[in-house]
Amino acid sequence: MFFGTKFMRVEKVRTETISAKIARQIESNILSGDLGKGEKLPSERDLAEQFDVSRPSIREAINKLEAKGIIYKVPGGGSYICETLGASFTDPLLELLVNNQDAAFDMLEMRYAIEGLSAYLAALRATEEDKELIQKRYDELLEANKHQNTKVEAACDVNFHLSIAMATHNPMLLHIMQSLFNVLQKSISITLIDLFKDSAHRIDIKDQHSEILDMVLKNDATAAKFAMQKHLSWVESCITKLRNEEKHEKIYFNRENTLANLVKVDE
Question: Which residues contact 252 (CB under 8 A, 6 or more apart)?
């Protein structure tokens, strides 16, 4: 039966080429964090064997990704994931933000929201492989603590938190964290220098990271989120105390108690 002259809106059906499928799978691995910035791709021969396709198809897929700015080639040296992916978070303005008096508080407020959610989702979604990586990053952090090299500790601290973000299997969360890596590492390094003036703080932070680890590994999402946010609230309160002791001006917006109050609300 014919019901008038209206036509259904449709898109033309197109068959996806083999090279497009390969490019899409490589992009998926980048989004998931399985392939990181600067990482070298396997050779064309190895990729052809893995995908069970011809080398020309692999070459065409890589050319597509290169045209998108996702991959770059080194003559005679293979293909690599671009280092500049997510570079919108690494412009000179962020360097100015890090050096701003309130930068530590700005960073902690942002981390409270993003990493609280990361811990929650990681506890729900982490695979055994994810948990092994989180444990490995925690062990590396413990080892760095022993040597008390603040710069190394900051890098390991960030890597531990990144491993939790990876376990969320949420590409957006992961890439926000990865894009902020350099700024986050510098911010944490500056914070640790202040905190470790009191040797007891190194033990406090180790215990807090241990609690975050345990809750994620036990798949206790609510407790993992609380442990992460409690840790960040503690850092905020310590920084505030240090600034008050050094007779710095009062923090704008009374933000020295912001995270502590948020923790109480979440409880």
Answer: 102
